[in-house]
Amino acid sequence: MDITAKRKGRFLYAVFIPACLTLFMILVFMLEKGMGWDFHTAGVFPRNPQRLWAVLSYVFIHADGSHLFNNAVSFFVLSAALYYFYKEIANRVFLLLYIFSGLILWVVGRGNWHVGASAVVYALAAFLFFSGVIRRHIPLIAISLVVTFLYGNMFWHLFPWQDNDPVSWEGHLSGGVAGLIMSVVYRKAGPQKPVKVWDEEDSAEEEEEPFWAEKEEDLNSES
Question: Is the pLDDT of residue 216 over 60?
Answer without folding.
Answer: no
